[in-house]
UniProtKB/TrEMBL annotation:
Residues 8-110 form the HTH hxlR-type domain. It comes from the Bacteria. This is Transcriptional regulator. Transmembrane segments: none annotated. Signal peptide: none annotated. It comes from Emticicia agri. InterPro entries: HTH_HxlR, WH-like_DNA-bd_sf, WH_DNA-bd_sf. Keywords: DNA-binding, Transcription, Transcription regulation. Pfam families: HxlR. One of its GO terms (molecular function) is DNA binding. SUPFAM superfamilies: Winged helix' DNA-binding domain (SSF46785).
Length: 112
């Protein structure tokens, strides 16, 4: 593939768009947890070790971008459950590649 100024500009824009949706410390962690199934708000907070305030903000952004769905359950007290949407599956290849790279990187660092 030949890299032109235009193709590099488009690539930078695409990467920036991706980071706008899944960037930051928590979104990819939350996606990884939710890949194992639905979670209630408190479960997510505990599993990710994230404060409720930050978790709420992250989940709102993920819902706005179509990655998670939010269901209010008719319980007392009311509980909220989060799940991945079918659209979130478009990130599977990215998440798998990041997991694989992270495992190799950890092994490399631990062996030095």
């Amino acid at each position: 593939m030949v890299h032109t100024d235009e193709s590099c500009r488009k690539a930078r824009l695409a990467v920036r768009d991706t980071l706008d949706v899944v960037g930051g410390k928590w979104k990819l962690v939350l996606l990884t947890i939710l890949r194992r199934g639905k979670r209630r708000f408190r479960e997510l907070s505990r599993e990710a070790d994230i404060s409720p305030r930050i978790l709420s903000k992250e989940l709102q952004e993920m819902e706005m971008n179509g990655l998670v769905s939010r269901t209010v359950l008719d319980t007392k007290p009311i509980t909220v459950e989060y799940a991945l949407t079918p659209y979130s599956e478009t990130l599977d290849e990215v998440l798998n590649a990041m997991e694989k790279w992270g495992q190799h990187h950890r092994e490399k660092i631990m062996s030095t």
